[in-house]
Protein 1
Amino acid sequence: MDDRNVFIVRCGEVALKGMNKPYFERMLAERVKKLLRRYENVDVARRDGLIFVRADKAHAREDVVAEIAKVFGVSSISPAVETASDLDAIANAAIALLRERAARDGIKTFKVEAKRADKSFPIKSPELASRVGALALRACADLKVDVHKPDCLLFVDLRKENSYLYEQKIPGFGGLPLGTNGKGLSLLSGGIDSPVATFMMARRGMRVEAVHFHSFPYTSERAREKVETLARAVAVYCGRFDLHVINLLPVQELLVERCPEEEMTILVRRFMMRIAERVASETACGVLITGENLGQVASQTAESLIVTDEAVKLPVMRPLIAFDKAEIIAKAKEIGTYETSILPYEDCCTVFLPKHPVTKPKLKNILLSESKLDAETLIAAAAASRETVTMYPQDF
Ligand code: ATP
Ligand code: MG
């Protein structure tokens, strides 16, 4: 039998995809393979709607699991022991596993659960569980069965070719494999929300790129580095992507000079959207993504969002629209962006911040203000001035 560690990877929602199921499974297996490419002696195979990963014993199981867990579309992962599909072999594997747990963690009780995927196997699931349990009990004098709160709950997954024993189901992020749902351009600030929004769209299978606006020299070099750090943290999940960095100061200076101060916030947002839309059209991104959230700040009232949307033709996806801040923070901590996001560097939105921003902008007034400048030329110049940095996933 194969001497490598085995992992069972479950595909979650991918399994619901009907006719497209093989396509989604293939994409998922490809992603798993890609993330494990720096590991030696790895094999990724699809069977019965599951993905079986084998990796050299030299690699710690936790490391392999952590890597697989970053793949969108994975619902859970179980490090497993592989045995032949016969009762004695399964019982022996169970005994070895329980003894190892007793020696290592001092477990006192166990329970066996079984599922017979191979219906031609002569013993039904409940009986299989009780027979393996009885054999293990006889062989492990120090252990008892506890069906309510066992120290070790051992699953037996009996399949035609081989069977698998495991005790853990480590949850993945779920979602859909990257590359199965188009490409979006994310407006990435240095804040808490936009990295989470980027992550959430990528989790639905969307490839992403990002655009960041700064107001150098009003915003510092450190603020830009912060955004690059955030982008790299997101790239851990989204794979390699381009970050387009644009200086918004020329636009902001003109707006300050020619338009009412209280409209600055909404005007800046509309320009950000249009510049992003221009970049998107040149990088084949079909939607814009923002971390906006209904009611969070003055620029995110329903009225402001409507006036913002009016500036562009591309759909604007706002995955955080109905989240509470506490939920967004919890997600940011989970994906590892929070600590960077709270570093206190200035954002371009805080430069020229109006004292009393309009919270219910009227489109008519905003269009009138914009008619005082040559928007088209400003947008084209800003989009063309972008510097593009490619973000590579890095351990974060
Ligand atoms: P965040 O935590 O994402 O910064 P926020 O609550 O601070 O969000 P705003 O500053 O109003 O909200 O920005 C709303 C959204 O606009 C952000 O989530 C982001 O998508 C986009 N955005 C804001 N500032 C920038 C920027 N400097 N560059 C690119 N996008 C930005
Ligand atoms: Mg912000």
Note: The first strand starts at residue 5 and ends at 10.
Protein 2
Amino acid sequence: MSSLTNFIEPAIQASYFVAAALFILGLKAMSSPVTARGGIVWAGVGMLLATLATFLTPGMGNFGLMLVAIAIGTTIAWWSGKTVKMTDMPQMIAIYNGMGGGAAAAIAAVEFARGDVHSPLIAALAALGALIGSVSFSGSCVAFAKLQGIMKKTFTLPAQNAVNIVLSLATIAIGVALVSAPTPDATLVLAFFLLALLLGTIITLPIGGADMPVVISLFNAFTGLAVGLEGFVLGNAALMIAGVVVGAAGTLLTQLMAKAMNRPISNILFVPMNAGGGGDEQVTGTMRAVTALDAAALMRYAQKVIIVPGYGMAVAHAQHKVWEMTELLEDAGVEVKFAIHPVAGRMPGHMNVLLAEAGVPYDKIFDLEEINAEFATADVALVIGANDVVNPAARTNKSSPIYGMPILNADFAQNVIVIKRGQGAGYSGIENALFYGENTNMLYGNAQPMVGEIIQHVKAMG
Ligand code: NAP
């Protein structure tokens, strides 16, 4: 029996090590659209291995309950993964991420409730992980409710930032008392977790609109940190490494998104967009409506067309039609390129994923820095369901909520064609002077049928 135990313990540790290596390799592969699918499989295999190894842990019990929990979780995840729409991905990530934070906090809650945290260092790590995990859990639930449309408003308390500070200090003070108590006190444990959950809720309630994906990414980093800390508490190498990897990836992603929106993270958390009451420039002029035939002619006889896809293309599922149109134009001798803004759509890489799915080769897709200088040499910039990412107010209007955000310079093209359904604003809710530009042609309609009509006209032109 003891020889079996001697064998099992190193086998479990080796499995955790292999699982951690698979997480890292998977994450690395996810950094390119070409290898991303494989990366997800690698990381999934790592998770399966870590889960199986946990079942072998000496002293482990309650296998029935564990299997029921895994069955429920797997069924929900399988079903939601199969049915979720691409545009609903941010809220799905929010809720999954929140579950991770909640699970990390639950580990600490169980350890405190059982009185299993004997060393002051481990108790402090458990409490810190619990605090961060609880904030991530409740904050992610609020983010999910907002993005899903369950919670339609943002709520800001009077003296919101003061309330945040007082609540944070009170939670930390109770955490310190909990860690210093010789034996765990149930009331302290309960108060600590309730305050931490309240803190996550109160911080997230005022955040709205365009900032939400950045907050989700920040909570993702929090969850990673919380999981890593609880990994130390349990002495579980796979949890530690997975937590550190998720925490680092989430932090980098948060920084990238905040930079792409030119919004410091502190502003996102403590100065909600439009908190100053607008700053929306009064845009004057008229919008010129054109037909699909006009748009087709402009592009068919152009030398260079740059396509700017945005959230509207995703909603309309127009990417396949857009690629069909691109191939037709290229057959007619037109050079066509795609310009991708880092925060186009509703999640990082949103447009890249859709275009890749439609079969657009990667060498036709360009990042903002690579393509921006080329708009001035383009005959046509075709903006499909994009708004904020081509709003010149970001360059010109200092009081605009998006001032300073790097934008795609579509307005520098000789002609601009904008496909959108009507006068709807972008995610940040502000007017767009591009639509009133003298070189801008508005093609009103749902992106998919509109591009379909353009295709018919281009075909008819031969
Ligand atoms: P956007 O500013 O949200 O504008 C999308 C436009 O698409 C709308 O003006 C809408 O106008 C149009 N539209 C909607 N449905 C359509 C359809 N079926 N057919 C045609 N047009 C349609 O989109 P964006 O330019 O891609 O900018 C993304 C926004 O999300 C930015 O504000 C960005 O900061 C924010 N954000 C993104 C991320 C990210 O990671 N990607 C992260 C954080 C924040 P109509 O209603 O008139 O059709």
Note: The pocket of NAP is lined by residues 210, 213-214, 257, 261, 310-312, 315-316, 343-348, 350, 385-389, 419-428, 446-447 (CB under 6 Å).
